[in-house]
Amino acid sequence: MKQILLDIPVDNPFFMPVDSVLSFRPFYEFLKEKSATEPTVKRAMYTMLLQEVEKYPELLEPVEARSMEKYTSLLEMIYAGMTGITTEENEVYWGMAMPGSGGIFYATDALFNLILQKMAAKVDGTPEDIAENIRRHRAMLYTAILKKCYDYDLHTERDAVLHTRDTATGLLKYYALNIDTSFVEVVTKGSLPSLDFRKMEGSLQEGTLFDYLQDVLPLHLFSFVGFSVCRLTDITSAHAIELIKSTITNISRKEKELCVMQIMESLKVLAGNNLVDFGFIPFVMLNNKPLLEFGEFSNSLILKYGKTGRLAYPDFVGMAETFVKRPVPVFFKDVPETTGMSRPLVELLNDAGAVSFALLPLFYNGEMVGAMEVYSRERHVLNEKMLQRVDPALPHLAQLMKVAIDNVNQQVTAVVSEKFTSIQPSVQWKFNEAAWHYLQAKSSQQKEPEIETVSFKEVYPLYGAIDIRNSSVERNMALQNDLSYHLSLLIETLTSLNQAHHLPLAEEMIFNCRKWLYKINETPIAADEHKLNAFIEAEVLPLLEYFKRLDKTAAAVVNNYLAATDVKEGKTHENRRNLETAMQTINKGISNYLDMMRGELQQLYPCYFEKFRTDGLEYDIYIGQSIAPDKPFNPVYLRNMRLWQLTSMAAIGKLTNELLPQLPRALYTTQLIFINGDPIDISFRNDEKRFDVEGAYNIRYQMIKKRIDKVHVSLTNERLTQPSKIALVYFDKKSADEYVSYIRYLQEQGLLNNDLEYLELEELQGVNGLKALRVGINLD
Fold it and tell me: Which residue of 3, 46, 288, 670 is surrounded by the most CB atoms within 10 Å?
């Protein structure tokens, strides 16, 4: 044991100034009670200590700490009684301190050396550390005051954490400080202040308890008599883990590089050696392949030296993929002496100067998310025991890798969303590659890079259109009926107002309304609708406002008219609302059916499916090897999809027919398929956020699609598309024959009628030689 005295100055930043009196009387009273009441064998120990204290009656009075060297034997007996016979004093951080002030006057060798080490290292706490330790010291003092003066137990405090720098390793070490005040009496100077315990409870809930106590119970009213017992526990490993966890938790609010440096420093503390280094490799998977280049967390030793060209990039990627498939720890205790299958990696590590190296897989929720490198450039540093010491940090480092992976994925997704659109899973991989190439180019050059074009070569198109029959005619009719009613109502309103309040201008307005009514009943009104609306807005409504101000009866008449013209509920828009409701009901039913079937399509073979809202609904489907390069394409998949297309058209025709009773206006649909037997090329148009065809021949396919919806049967005025029928437009007989076989099959199944027609079609601008099949849908 060592007898020491540290004169803690009054302004020490870690302690509150208090009146501290060293005395053994509280300890003596404790021993007296225990030696009289203790029923176990401890009673003998208490009695022996009591007898030893009684040899020095001066210790029961205030005593100078500097004089404690005369009582070494007593102090050693107290230490032995409190710590047990199995403890070694060079391993136990134990000491006796002045009551309340923290000044240690007697300590074990371990604590003595630690204090000298801390003084030599001059490790100053941060302002946060100082504030926290002052708070803890204040809490300890008031906890003792409340317990000993008011018999009020307060259990709110944890041990304080102290740190010092190890002179051998240069690394920080952390200790939990526990101060036992069992042998401290709190003496009040004057009368004891009264406390409002209700206010205390309230301030405790608000977290301001000790601020409140400092106001009502200032520390200068109390003396602390006796001595405290200090115990320090080495919590370096646990604290390093907590620092890693805290850094990862707050990583979104700090610079990523700084966070990685803090984590590596904590790992060195955990390993207990400053000559070991760490690196991280998050395994970001792009299209099921690991990415090995990205910024914020890319501090890997093997990635850094792998870029020098020592290892060919395909071999480097292959090595990474092998590790992903079989993620087991790798440990080279002596890199220069390692031979065998790992030779390429060993050569890379030799270039990096790593004498020993370990690669530890990291798992998050059972899935490998990355690896941690542990290496040293000095011999006899890295060993199995050190790897065991860092093992508790691995789950938290796995979380760090997950953060890195999510960060990269979010960047890729952000680029895809910004530069493209909402992308279907079947082609997402292609957009991911384009986004990643864009990010790489952006990081390596000053100017904004161009985003590459996403394209697919030689894909087979399937086009279908479900149109609402005569939608333009239906719109014009609904508009005409609404405007006719509107003008009739307006004439009736103006006539009523003019009868009550004769006004020549009203008569002229009635005359103009009758002219408009005649016009819309005799000729299409769509082109002149805006003129009629301008007439009502500029001339009719101001006149109605004039009548509205004349009297209540006129106001009621005007209000009835205005209510009837309300867009959402008024009768002057009823036909257009009914038409819109009917069209939305039909389109929603078709859209829901296609959405439901989309998953079935993807099960057949990955494909791109895009639908467009018109008066009805159109869709494009593209299928081919370039969309799913990892799944061999077979013509069987295309034939399956063509059969699905015909079957779905029959189902949609029947569905829209069954919706008729629910519609506020009867509408019928036509079903159209364009058969294109040859593959085409498509590319994504970034400006329009959709796929379009490429090349002159492919543009011809797109042009035909847009023109066949209103094509007529040759030498007739009959539209090809008819309600409750499927029309199939084609060029070559081979493609048509394939669909004919599907039609015969569906006729046998009872989905189609036995009324197949072979039709010649009229010539379209720039297109001739079109033919068609047409077959009825069995609606029963």
Answer: 670
